[in-house]
## 1
Amino acid sequence: MVPISYYVILSGVLFGLGVIGFVFKRNIITIFMSIELMLNAVNLAFVAFSREFNQLDGLVFVFFVIVVAAAEAAVGLAIAMVIARNRKSLNVEDVDLLKF
Amino acid sequence: MFPPVQDLYRIAPEIVLCLFGMLVMLIDPFVPAGRQRSMGWLAFAGTLGAFASLRWMFVNPGSAYSGLLRADTFSLFVHGIVIAVAALAILGSFDYLDHEGIQRGEYYALILFATAGMGILAGANELVTAFVGLEISSISTYILAGFRRNALKSNEASLKYFLLGSFATAFFLYGTALTYGATRSTRFEVIDQAIAANGSGALLIIGLGLIFVGLGFKVVAAPFQIYTPDVYEGAPTPVTAVLACGPKAAAFAVMVRVFYGAFGHASHIWFWAIWVSAVLTMCIGNFAAIVQSNVKRLLAYSSIAHAGYILVAFAAASEIGVAAVLFYLAAYAAMTLGAFLILAYVGGTEERRLDIADYAGLGTRQPWVAACFSLFLFSLLGLPATAGFLGKFYSFSAAIDQRLVWLVVIASINSVIGSYYYLKVVVAMYFWEPNKEWTPSPMHAPMFIALLLTALGTIYLGILPDRVMQWAITSAQSLH
């Protein structure tokens, strides 16, 4: 049996990759996919802990995360659509009317 | 197997808000063009219904759905704030949506759904429930921030809010997962017992840190405040009014429950994080506000600074501290909502008049509007006999009680710096020569009522705070 620490480290690596992608990528869709990667890292951690503890709780949480991620995707892609239509670009560096 | 009927009473406000939200969405397509305003009144009725249904929550205290939610005085207090914010923001939105040409039913429905999410946050007694509430309110507000679909600034606000908001939620969620791994539960009381029994390991500390990042974004605590000025400036002004008051109150509520309730025994770990964050939040907010010439952006920075003052009370980590947080949230909601509604009114079509120079001469042209705005600004500044003064007073004295002298010294210096930019706007209104001719837009009854109520609230909390403060103390005691 694979020890729990392997799963947790893998999920940590996935989460870290998501953070790196969020910070360094410039395309809105890619940034959005990085966030999805982070959420999937969370799911992996929940499932691993759930099996370790022999509890169902963690598995139930995963469904909540999936549902919320789907809702977020619907809204996020709609926002990306509006940006693409009004600006003819999906690069976040072009979205710079408000000074950061 | 059904949950007992009392559980339904304990989430009555959320049920009422969601029902009215769905009703608005269902009826909206059948409303003839040009009569969309009636949907706003329906939504307003929904907020009044939610207010009335707080009564059911009040007479059925206790935990609901096998401990996922708690209906206590604390939850009731925060519910009161977020529902009032929604009701007044709806009243303040009618004219704005008309002159922007975006008078649609969804707008009101989304405000109701967002408020329902904030209500769940206020009562959440478990991390995943808190996550669901957080997302219901966030996803609705992402759409609201971009509601002026053809305005590039509004698109941009929506995008930034969405990307950074989801990023923060992912942090909160990963923190939840690690906490679950460390304590085998996501319930606040079980986490508390586990920490009391086993101490805090590495997994738990990382989890706590990630949860702090996630909630820090939502309460606008530095260094996670970067998105705030852009989002508040770009979003439609009545939406900014909601964003600045509602989600912040709800997120502070859940932060109180998580940090005092679940991680109370790890307070030596989070205390310094809160302390540093409070100092950074106050300083960044106030210093950046000084150089702003756009009033909407100025108020956005001022709302960051106020999050810092609330964190001062939060750092006190005592019952009085929690009561001070609650009182400050109520006072802050009244004065900030009022100030942003004035901006929505004076800004006019396409938000053209938002510069400080545009406020020149407002004192002679529209003395009542100027007086009202001055009241809100003086309250934000913290002048005695206003809500803002007592909010700061309770907050700072709670911190002094816990011997956080340096924190209070820094906070006091910050409120002095803050007075500069608030007074700059007041001076512009009364002493500057108007730079261009413009005819003031007429003020209609809904906006008038919203402004009247926020102004009365600001004065009431400033002169007769006892009743509300007493209630806040009861709320703080109800946490245990």
Note: Chain A has a mean pLDDT of 91.
## 2
Amino acid sequence: MSATAKTYPRRWRRPATMIPDPRWRYGIYAAILIYLVLAISTVDVNWARVWDGLDRGGRFVMGFLTPDFTSRWKDISNGMVESLTMTVTATVAGVLISVPIGIGAARNIAPMPVYYACRGLIALSRSLQEIIIAILLVAMFGFGPFAGFLTLTFATIGFLAKLLAEDIEDIDETQAEAIRATGASWWQLVNYAVQPQVMPRLIGLTLYRFDINFRESAVIGIVGAGGIGATLNTAIDRYEYDSAGAILLIIIAVVMFAEYSSSYIRKWVQ
Amino acid sequence: MLTVDALTKTYKTGDKALKSVSFTVPKGQVVGLIGPSGAGKSSLIRCINRLVEPSEGRVLLNDLNITGLPAGELRRARRRIGMIFQEYALVERLTVMENVLSGRLGYVGFWRSFLRQFAGDDVQNAFRLLDRVGLIDHADKRADALSGGQRQRVGIARALAQDPELLLIDEPTASLDPKTSRQIMRLIVEICEERELPAIINIHDVVLAQQFTQRIIGLKAGEIVFDGAPELLDESVLTRIYGEEDWTAMRRAAEEDDHAERDAAERMAGMI
């Protein structure tokens, strides 16, 4: 066939890139299928209990559909104030502590010993889930919002310092190089080249952490760290599903408010 | 006066970016540094203010041996060397004024710079420089609101705010259109004349280099292969510098940039 009359295929199929051998491929598919069937067959469902539970579930749903804000309003508002106080103070304290740690954990501006120390702190904070920290701190400092405040602060440090450090590592190096070329000191470098580049993101992350902290404050209340979570726990223990429904609605409203206002503020600081 | 004496740079990977480069730049002279990508231009310019650490050799600025300085004194030496960058390297979220004033960072303490309380003389001088580069009306704008040519003018003002004794200029026109390029080159040459500043301009555009500089140094594979007046730069010299078609050099270019960047990042980590 000559070059001019050469015909090219009109069909093309994507080649299997991950597992090229079809025997292996179908073998693995079959293994997954068999595992799923076996796994599902081991789940023991007691249908009689499910039937009984439907009744209680129905009351639960009905309670949420007819939320009762009034009869426990004092408890709810106290819990709410406690939760918001916890959230605000923990976010502020957490940010203040995590900024220096985040700078120290950025490989491109921190010396190695500081880097490892700060990364270690971050790893420690991130390795424990909030509820576990809350249980420990409630045991140490007793029931109430102070333990909650400490829990949320500790969790905020791990979250914010890590993301801030990663952001600092991603800065535009030429801007930093230019500031360094003027004879700036390390602190001036951080203030003039790093801070302007990471500030909008730091504000965004802080707002994001604020609404995470609020949600977490509801969860850790269940293990005794005060706030709206404690109120919610009490309401459910007393089978007052209508009050519990009211509490959940308030939590949703606050989180939505934080979400919308934070996206607005983030756009504004860009 | 700047003296570069047997400057050598070997990167960790074993690549030799500079092989015993020596030259002297007297007061007020504008030198164009040309050569193919990967010839070591960018390394050379950064070795002079030690943004890239040279391996061997000396750099003398008016009898001050820059290569021997410890970190604190290096900072003091750096403020005497203004640097202008390829992609302007302005801090984009700061105002034009802050960018110009950042040229004073080597002279003021941290708290003064942190609170933006620069001395009256510094502020006045910054306004004078902005007027000189034609941007006095833009002082309060954010740097990322300006066009390319305007940003490069801010870059020039920032370098001059340092009150430098030497200008290092890295590809000042690489991202500008031909007309703006000429305006920027003219501005640089005029300013060097006014202040009797020696300058090294690392430049790709040979025509532009010939048009505006008083002396040209041709670098190839880390060695000086030409050093003389722009008029002497003819076909045969250009072939000697760039080769007929030097593909291997081009491939090395990307590598060299990578090395320089990595080296700079490491240097920054070691700055404290």
Note: Chain B has a mean pLDDT of 85.
